[in-house]
């Protein structure tokens, strides 16, 4: 178990370290608090810490200066060390120690100021007296001492600041009292530069480096000296000439357009540059920090013009330079960078005089010499409450429940209630010479030292219970023991007394010392007491040994409690602790104590034994005892060095070997307290700094005291149980003045023990959960309710106005919609007429084209028969030649066999010789392979390295992509915000509807009240209701009609979309023929598109608004039903609370009679706890009847039935749509199969056709024809294929290419003047479009993605696909020019159809639709 502390949080600043407020990174600020350098994140408020140096070689006495370099990310901390000061470097990000600087020629134990150069290569340090040496260091790589020079001659002219010139790192500035000097580092020395400032007695205290090589220096007399190029150019007086007092220039800092100055009383002055002035700078504006924050001592500025002000009252304020102008408007632009700290009083004292921590709540209370009491929440890192008094509070004690706070003054004790927003004084106790105050562990008693006496008060009544007399000097410490049944007091004279508050247990322990005691403490069992004396000794007193002595002499001490104290402390239970009956279930002994507290308390005398004495380096000012770990925690008060928290193990006894010294403070520790679970230690010092620390590596959960004390057999934590009981009674006692507002409703110590707070629970421990409970004045609560009601009324009025505006806009939009609909209808009729005209022209063109195609087919058939005859003769000639070649081949085979036999024999001999040669080569090759293998391994290593780099690059690209998509995500979030704004508007409409509904309900209630008196009026109102219902039904029918109208418009819109696609196709197809009308058609198309877009937008908007209205109506009905139920429950709860209040008042009236009080308490427990009497059970009976009469349920059932019917219809429609899509897909698949089969047949026909042509042409060869002539006739002499792709098959081999070219030469005529492939006849052959080659037997197929083939129209008007094989060509001659014109028209039609289908596919993909059914429907319409 470690007893070393780790700092987790600090509150306050060290006032002894000046000019230490500095940025270490863009968003991290460093300052000094206690014995730590605090690095705080200005955005998240998280703190990190650098502790002072404490090693064997160097023991730091104090932190004296601080500097940082943002570019190098280095923090330099100067510390006071004997015999010479040191400077330690830390990393600004990880806060790890990097290196240390020290030198014997510093001439002092303290470094007063230091600074980094702009590039981070050099560091300059200014030591304090008596030498006042300026030392220059090179810190770029190591720590190298360069040179030093003496600045001041005595302590009367101290040096305040040093700095490097930002544009010349060899120039150093030194300012102080009567000191303004510049040095330049040349040839290993610091040589002074010549500068004349005729102000010998001025005290230079601030500076700032500006742009354009300028420097401003501020003096204590309120003057700003301007230096340009290291020469004095002028001066600016910050105060008016006739002013009675000159404000000093405490700090300066450069800005983008000038500089800002800080002075007394929170004054900030902004100067900006003006070239036309002699001084170059002019005062632009003056601002005053609001509130009594003190003087502006330091200014630090961030990269985003964030300004940080360090005040002399220990505040650190944060703002922006651009928002300073809002101060004059009364706005608060300064925020505390962490929270508000304790500040010095008028005498400059900032000591924290008292501190305590609560058990139930995560709060810490402190009081200081600034006459304030502050309540902190260390978990949320903020100050919750603060109260300032006219006189100085000397100390305080916080009630275990965290509800009350006792503050002691010189002549009184004030009991404060911790309310929601203030500390309210609820009681004041008159007392004199109060030096110590402490609540008991259970919270039911308050012990206060009254001079040399100890006065015991009842917490909840304020009446004195007992007065303990026996000390000769003021009491320094009080310890409650044995579950608040015993008290140990330590007096300043050196005596320790043990006081037993029960006369049955007479105690004799005491310690008659003669050395003054500073503080003391002890464990809960009271067997051991630890005291600290002025001679720096810590003694362990064994009080159990003193009880074995003889002749006890008991001195009687008069009790001043009176009979009134008995009634306040009657809570039954066994002896052993406070008021345990209410909180821990028998954890306290209130009953026995109540019966004897008004009697005599005894002070028993007996000599205690000093078992162990330990001497420390400094005297101990505060003590605490950790019950769970059995640690003794001591706070020291050292004037020469840092004050420490010393933690010592007490088992078996205290020893120097088991002590751990933790340096936390730079001033004497004045307050010390420990959290209830023992994990967190709170310490405060004389500088007003509070340090919150924890044990290093502690996973410890608060242990029960019984785990370490075998004598305790109660089994419950009396402190927690007593605190719970005290809280219960305190809440009942304060019911007349305050109202308790409970956030979580958790109460009771036993329940708190059973709730887990996270983490694994060890054996013998319990988990504790803080209570989220606050108090508030009843008047404040009622005022808040009234304010909320007023705001609700204002919101209702605004909603009514908004509803009226929305209705007006809705009427206006309906008129516009009707007007646009009429215009669209007229334009649609005109377009339909134009479409009919275009369709007639198209049909005439199709008939003309069909006639031309028929002529071409007849001509093609004639040419095909001629080619077949020609190739049949060629085939016969080739067959004869094949027979001759077969005979020649047989003879050649015989000759080759003989020659081959001879070659085999010679080859075997050659192979034997060659095998021997290759065996030698194989051996050489193996050695070469080994070398290659080694090289391969090296290459693999390089490859792995390259792979790692590639992966790193990939990760970088992934990060960039992530940033890109993060931007897209932000855009989506902005869209979400816009939608949220629209949702807010709809919510306002909903609230308006709710208001109208409430008015209707009030009207119905009034009519029910008049039912018994005016029957005729009831019938009249019923008729009105029927008429209203009829009107509602008519409006619903109107809404349904409008929904149907919207659906019909949507259908028409879809049909218009289909017509739009068809019209686009027609416009493109006829573009070349209808050029004069092209502009008019384009204009009309654009208008149609705009109208369709607007119509679609209106349809969508109407549909969305109808859905929203339906949803809002449903929500409104549900909220109304829930509101009625809540009103009933509230009424029942009020009756229940009224009954409980009456019973409590009756019980309180019988408090004088103990037996009657007990009987009444038991009766209330049985009625309100054991019996389930709650508002829920009381209200269950009246809820059933209301539900039966509620017409809303009937409406909800009808609506649910209609929704179920609508869902079933939607599912049926979806099923039919899926079946339709399956049928269409099946038809498409069958069409594809038929198309593939047709293509296969065409390919077979083509191959047979080529074979026939070859046979016919072979007839021209004779018997003696050679192979070259045959190749020439077949056209195989061409090495390169023609550019045309008509003769090539997508799946055929290369052998048919030349034959295809030959067939093309004979089949197609040459275009007049056009370019084509050259055939054997030398004519130019045209290159038909690849998509139309099937018309003439080519192998190029139409793309499979096409659903509409090229169409032809016969003279009779019959439309057929161009890919189908019709009849033969008509007999007759057709010119080549006509054939080429036909091909050109086919190509144009194909391109137009392809473009149309591509556009249809793009539009459907953008809308998320299937394009195939739409294209099929277009084919059907075109076929008609």
Structure summary:
This protein is of the alpha+beta class. It is built from 16 helices and 64 strands.
Describe this structure in words.
The protein has 1424 residues and is of the alpha+beta class. The protein has 16 helices and 64 strands. A hairpin with a 7-residue loop joins strand 24 (267-273) and strand 25. The longest helix has 232 residues, at 778-1009. The relative contact order is 0.05.
Number of helices: 16
Task: Please give the alpha-carbon distance between the first and last residues.
Answer: 96 Å
Low-confidence stretches: 548-605, 699-766, 1178-1189, 1260-1265, 1273-1374
Shape category:
extended
Strand content: 25-35%
Q: Return the structural class.
A: alpha+beta
Query: What number is the mean pLDDT?
Result: 76
Helix content: 25-40%
| Total strand segments | 64
Rg on CA atoms, Å? 51 Å
Summarize the biggest pleated sheet.
6 strands, antiparallel
Q: What's the layout of helices and strands?
A:
Elements: E1 5-11, E2 22-25, E3 28-33, E4 36-41, E5 47-51, E6 62-69, E7 74-80, E8 86-91, E9 97-101, E10 111-116, E11 122-127, E12 133-138, E13 144-150, E14 159-164, E15 171-176, E16 179-186, E17 189-192, E18 204-210, E19 214-219, E20 223-228, E21 231-237, E22 251-254, E23 258-262, E24 267-273, E25 281-288, E26 296-301, E27 306-311, E28 316-320, E29 335-336, E30 352-357, E31 364-368, E32 372-377, E33 382-388, E34 395-398, E35 404-408, E36 412-418, E37 423-430, E38 434-439, E39 445-450, E40 453-458, E41 464-468, E42 475-481, E43 486-491, E44 495-500, E45 510-512, E46 517-521, E47 528-533, E48 537-542, H1 543-546, E49 553-557, H2 564-568, H3 580-583, H4 590-596, E50 601-605, E51 609-615, E52 620-626, E53 631-636, E54 643-649, E55 659-665, E56 669-674, E57 680-685, E58 690-695, H5 718-733, E59 738-742, H6 749-754, E60 773-777, H7 778-1009, H8 1015-1069, H9 1078-1149, H10 1154-1170, H11 1175-1188, H12 1191-1257, H13 1267-1274, H14 1297-1307, E61 1317-1318, E62 1324-1325, E63 1351-1353, E64 1359-1361, H15 1376-1407, H16 1411-1423
Antiparallel strand pairs: 1-58, 2-3, 3-4, 4-5, 6-7, 7-8, 8-9, 10-11, 11-12, 12-13, 14-15, 15-16, 16-17, 18-19, 19-20, 20-21, 22-23, 23-24, 24-25, 26-27, 27-28, 28-29, 30-31, 31-32, 32-33, 34-35, 35-36, 36-37, 38-39, 39-40, 40-41, 42-43, 43-44, 44-45, 44-50, 46-47, 47-48, 48-51, 49-50, 52-53, ...
């Amino acid at each position: 178990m470690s007893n070393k502390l780790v700092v987790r949080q600090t509150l306050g600043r060290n006032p002894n370290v000046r000019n230490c407020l500095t940025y270490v990174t863009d968003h991290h600020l460093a300052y000094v608090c206690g014995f730590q350098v605090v690095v705080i994140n200005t955005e998240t408020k998280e703190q990190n810490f650098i502790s002072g140096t404490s090693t064997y070689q160097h023991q730091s006495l104090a932190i004296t200066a601080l500097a940082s370099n943002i570019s190098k990310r280095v923090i330099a901390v100067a510390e006071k060390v004997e015999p010479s000061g040191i400077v330690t470097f830390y990393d600004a990000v990880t806060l790890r120690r990097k290196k240390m600087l020290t030198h014997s020629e510093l001439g002092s134990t303290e470094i007063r100021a230091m600074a980094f150069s702009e590039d981070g290569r050099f560091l300059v340090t200014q030591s304090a007296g008596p030498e006042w040496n300026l030392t220059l260091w090179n810190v770029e790589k190591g720590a190298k001492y360069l040179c030093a020079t003496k600045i001041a001659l005595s302590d009367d002219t101290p040096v305040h600041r040093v700095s490097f010139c930002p544009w010349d790192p060899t120039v150093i500035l030194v300012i102080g009292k009567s000191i303004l000097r510049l040095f330049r580092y040349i040839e290993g020395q610091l040589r002074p530069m010549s500068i004349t400032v005729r102000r010998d007695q001025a005290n230079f205290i601030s500076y700032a480096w500006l742009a354009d090589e300028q420097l401003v220096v501020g003096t204590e007399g309120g003057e700003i000296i301007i230096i340009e190029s290291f020469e004095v150019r002028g001066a600016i007086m910050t105060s008016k000439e006739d002013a009675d007092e000159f404000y000093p220039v405490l700090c300066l800092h450069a800005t983008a357009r000038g500089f800002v100055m800080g002075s007394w009383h929170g004054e900030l002055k902004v100067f900006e540059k003006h070239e036309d002035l002699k001084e170059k700078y002019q005062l632009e504006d003056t601002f005053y920090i609001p509130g009594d924050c003190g003087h502006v001592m330091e200014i630090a500025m961030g990269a985003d013009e964030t300004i940080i002000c360090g005040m002399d009252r220990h505040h650190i304020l944060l703002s922006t330079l651009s928002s300073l102008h809002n101060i004059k408007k009364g706005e608060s632009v300064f925020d505390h960078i962490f929270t508000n700290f304790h500040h010095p009083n008028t005498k400059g004292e900032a000591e924290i005089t008292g501190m305590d921590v609560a058990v139930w709540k995560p709060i810490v209370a402190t009081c200081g010499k600034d006459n304030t009491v502050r309540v902190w929440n260390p978990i949320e890192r903020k100050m919750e409450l603060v109260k300032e008094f006219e006189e100085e509070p000397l100390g305080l004690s916080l009630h275990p429940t965290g509800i009350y706070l006792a503050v002691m003054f010189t002549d009184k004790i004030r009991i404060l209630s911790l309310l929601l927003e203030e500390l309210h004084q609820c009681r004041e106790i008159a007392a004199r010479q109060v030096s110590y105050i402490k609540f008991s562990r259970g919270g039911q008693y308050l012990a206060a030292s009254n001079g040399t006496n100890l006065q015991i008060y009842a917490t909840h009544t304020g009446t004195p219970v007992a007065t303990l007399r026996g000390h000769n000097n003021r009491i320094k410490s009080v310890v409650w023991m044995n579950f608040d049944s015993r008290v140990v007091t330590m007096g300043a004279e050196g005596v320790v007394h043990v006081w037993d508050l029960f006369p049955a247990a007479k105690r004799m322990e005491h310690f008659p010392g003669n050395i003054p005691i500073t503080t003391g403490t002890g464990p809960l069992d009271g067997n051991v007491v630890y005291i600290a004396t002025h001679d720096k000794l810590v003694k362990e007193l064994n009080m159990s040994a003193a009880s074995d002595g003889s002749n006890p002499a008991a001195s009687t001490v008069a009790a001043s409690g009176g009979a009134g104290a008995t009634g306040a402390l009657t809570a039954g239970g066994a002896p052993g602790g406070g008021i345990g009956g209410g909180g821990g279930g028998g954890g306290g002994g209130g009953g026995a104590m109540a019966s004897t507290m008004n009697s005599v308390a005894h002070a028993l005398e007996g000599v205690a034994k000093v078992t162990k004495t330990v001497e420390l380096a400094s005297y101990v000012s505060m003590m605490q005892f950790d019950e769970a770990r059995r640690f003794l925690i001591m706070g020291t008060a050292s004037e020469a060095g840092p004050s420490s928290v010393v933690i010592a193990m007490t088992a078996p006894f205290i020893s120097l070997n088991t002590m751990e010294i933790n340096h936390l403070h730079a001033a004497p520790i004045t307050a010390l307290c420990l959290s209830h679970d023992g994990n967190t230690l709170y310490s405060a010092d004389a500088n007003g700094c509070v340090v919150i620390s924890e044990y290093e590596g502690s996973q410890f959960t608060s242990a029960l005291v019984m785990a370490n004390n075998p004598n305790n057999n109660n089994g419950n934590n009396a402190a927690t149980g007593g605190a719970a009981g005290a809280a219960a009674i305190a809440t009942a006692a304060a019911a007349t003045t305050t109202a308790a507002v409970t956030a979580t409703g958790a109460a009771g110590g036993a329940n708190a023990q059973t709730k887990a707070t996270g983490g694994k629970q060890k054996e013998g421990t319990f988990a504790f959960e803080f209570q989220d409970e606050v108090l508030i004045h009843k008047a404040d609560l009622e005022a808040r309710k009234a304010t909320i009601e007023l705001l609700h009324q204002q919101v209702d009025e605004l909603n009514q106005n908004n509803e009226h505006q929305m209705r007006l806009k809705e009427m206006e939009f309906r008129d516009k919609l009707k007007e646009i609909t009429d215009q669209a209808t007229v334009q649609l009729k005109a377009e339909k007429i134009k479409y009919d005209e275009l369709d007639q022209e198209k049909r005439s063109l199709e008939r003309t084209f069909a006639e031309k195609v028929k002529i071409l087919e007849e001509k093609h058939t004639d040419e095909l028969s001629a080619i077949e005859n020609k190739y049949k003769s060629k085939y016969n000639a080739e067959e004869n030649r094949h027979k001759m070649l077969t005979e020649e081949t047989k003879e050649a085979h015989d000759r080759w066999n003989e020659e081959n036999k001879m070659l085999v024999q010679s080859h075997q001999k050659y192979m034997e010789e060659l095998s021997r040669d290759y065996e030698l080569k194989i051996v050489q090759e193996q050695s070469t392979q080994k070398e290659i293998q080694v090289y391969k391994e090296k290459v693999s290593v390089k490859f792995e390295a390259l792979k790692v780099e590639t992966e790193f690059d990939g990760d970088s690209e992934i990060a960039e992509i992530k940033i890109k998509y993060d931007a897209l995500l932000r855009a989506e979030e902005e869209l979400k915000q816009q939608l949220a704004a629209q949702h807010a508007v709809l919510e306002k409409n909903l609230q308006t509807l709710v208001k109208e509904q409430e008015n209707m309900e009030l009207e119905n209630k009034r009519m029910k009240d008049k039912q018994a008196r005016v029957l005729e009026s009831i019938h009249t109102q019923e008729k009105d209701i029927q008429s209203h219902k009829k009107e509602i039904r008519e409006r619903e029918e109107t809404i349904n009609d409008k929904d149907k109208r919207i659906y019909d418009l949507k259908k028409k819109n879809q049909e218009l979309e289909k017509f739009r696609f068809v019209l686009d196709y027609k416009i493109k197809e006829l573009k070349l023929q209808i050029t004069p009308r092209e502009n008019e058609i384009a204009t009309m198309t654009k208008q149609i598109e705009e109208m369709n877009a607007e119509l679609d937008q209106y349809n969508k908007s109407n549909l969305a608004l109808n859905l929203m209205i339906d949803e809002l109506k449903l929500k409104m009905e549900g909220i109304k039903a829930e509101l009625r139920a809540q009103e009933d429950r509230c009424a029942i709860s009020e009756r229940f609370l009224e009954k409980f209040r009456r019973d409590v008042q009756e019980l309180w009236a019988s408090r004088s009679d103990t037996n009657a009080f007990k009987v009444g308490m038991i009766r209330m427990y049985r009625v309100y706890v054991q019996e389930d009497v709650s508002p829920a059970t009381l209200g269950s009976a009246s809820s059933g009847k209301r539900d039966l009469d509620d017409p809303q349920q009937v409406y909800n059932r009808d609506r649910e039935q209609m929704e179920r019917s609508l869902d079933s219809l939607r599912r049926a429609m979806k099923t039919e749509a899926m079946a339709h899509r399956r049928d269409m897909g099946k038809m498409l698949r069958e069409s594809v199969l038929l198309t593939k089969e047709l293509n296969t047949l065409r390919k077979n026909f083509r191959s047979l056709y080529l074979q026939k042509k070859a046979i016919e042409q072979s007839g021209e060869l004779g018997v003696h024809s050679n192979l070259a002539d045959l190749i020439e006739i077949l056209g195989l002499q061409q090495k390169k294929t023609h550019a045309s792709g008509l003769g090539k098959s997508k799946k055929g081999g290369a052998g048919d290419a030349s034959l295809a070219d030959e067939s093309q030469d004979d089949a197609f005529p040459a275009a007049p003047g056009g370019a084509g492939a050259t055939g054997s006849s030398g004519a130019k052959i045209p290159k038909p479009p690849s998509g139309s080659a099937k018309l003439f037997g080519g192998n190029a197929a139409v793309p499979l993605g096409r659903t509409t083939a090229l169409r032809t129209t016969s003279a009779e008007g019959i439309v057929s696909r161009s890919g189908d094989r019709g009849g033969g060509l008509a007999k007759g001659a057709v010119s080549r020019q006509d054939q080429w014109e036909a091909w050109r028209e086919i190509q144009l039609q194909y391109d137009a159809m392809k473009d149309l289908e591509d556009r249809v596919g793009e539009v459907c993909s953008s809308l998320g639709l299937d394009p195939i059914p739409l294209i099929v429907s277009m084919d059907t319409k075109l076929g008609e």
